[in-house]
Structure formats: C-alpha cells, structure tokens
Amino acid sequence: xxxxxxxxxxxxxxxxxxxxxxxxxxxxxxxxxxxxxxxxxxxxxxxxxxxxxxxxxxxxxxxxxxxxxxxxxxxxxxxxxxxxxxxxxxxxxxxxxxxxxxxxxxxxxxxxxxxxxxxxxxxxxxxxxxxxxxxxxxxx
Length: 140
Hints:
Blueprint: E1 2-7, H1 12-24, H2 36-44, E2 48-54, E3 57-66, E4 70-78, H3 87-102, E5 105-108, H4 115-123
Parallel strand pairs: 4-5
Antiparallel strand pairs: 1-2, 2-3, 3-4
C-alpha cells in the first residue's frame, strides 16, 4: 500500500506538495531557508527527496543531502492522518539504505519535544552526541 518515490529533481508542483506536508507537521519555517531554489540546488548536487505515497496520495517525505562524509536526513514528515502506519519506518529504512549505498554516516536532528520521532530514530540506532550542541547562523 505504501510506495516510495525517489526524486533527484523537483517540479514546483512537487515542491508545493512536499512543503504542504512540512507545514502540516510543523517542521516548516521560513528561517530554515528551504526555498524551491535551495531544495533544487541540493538535489542537483547529490541530494534526494523520498516521497511516500499511499494509493498515489503523497503522505510522507524526507529530504536527504550529503557532504560526501555524512548523509543528512532532513524534514522527515508524515501526514497526521497517516501516522502510525509504518510510513516513517519505510522512509527511514530507505534513507539508511541510501546512506549505506553511498557509504556515508547518517546524521539527523530531532526537536527535544518530538518524542515519537526520537523513539523511531533510537530504534534505528541513532544516538545522542553527548557534549555537542547544535548551532546555526541563519543570516549570512
């Protein structure tokens, strides 16, 4: 019932579908700078978007980028009405399969209040990097 599509390029229509999922799940933010152009730039440089479809309805997504050392798993999102149906599991397994294929370490960030995602990520062997703080400078 769940079908995955791997995108290495993106139309504006696909971008709208994906960002709608990001907004619906609370992971979108203008501060992140995830414009159509920014996402397409990462895809043109080895990134991928995994899109989960339920009966051809887009219900989940994750965005992968890499720096040739680590595969970064960004914006894993599953439509609220389709959560707890194995979609997050399928997205994670595909992301880890791609990391293995590319021989890259997988890395992600999870908000401290997102207990369900944290539990899923722990299940797949992700650990907290003790002693590290995630920092970002958004204005360039």
